[in-house]
Amino acid sequence: MMKKTFITAAALAFLAGPALAGSFEQDAKMIQDTAQAAQISDADKAKVMELTAVAKAQNDAGQTDQAAATLQQAKQLLGIN
């Protein structure tokens, strides 16, 4: 019973990975698009772009929690949740 539960959980985690990655890509693109249209300083726009690049590298390296936190910093600069 325990082995079957573990296998099911592992399969669900494996299948959810691409969905979560797609969500990350959508969030990063939305942040970059918002930064381009936002009325913020060029320095803040550059910082947002830098943060999204760092988040992408973190996400690609499997550091999803850090990537989400980095994207959150970019959102804060833009004043979005």
> Helix count?
3
Mean pLDDT: 81
Domain tally: 1
Helix percentage: over 70%
- The poorly predicted ranges are 6-20
Count of DSSP strands: 0
H/E series: HHH
3D shape: elongated
Characterize the largest beta sheet: strand count, sense, and whether it forms a barrel: none
Strand content: under 5%
Strand pairing plus helix content: what structural class? Answer: mainly alpha
The radius of gyration over CA amounts to 16 Å
From the N-terminal CA to the C-terminal CA, the straight-line distance is 42 Å
Structure, described:
The protein has 81 residues and is mostly helical. The chain has one domain. The chain has helices at residues 2-37, 42-60, 64-78.
Supply database-style keywords.
single chain; mainly alpha; 86% helix; elongated
Could you outline the blueprint of secondary structure elements for this entry?
Blueprint: H1 2-37, H2 42-60, H3 64-78
Helix pairs in contact: 1-2, 1-3, 2-3
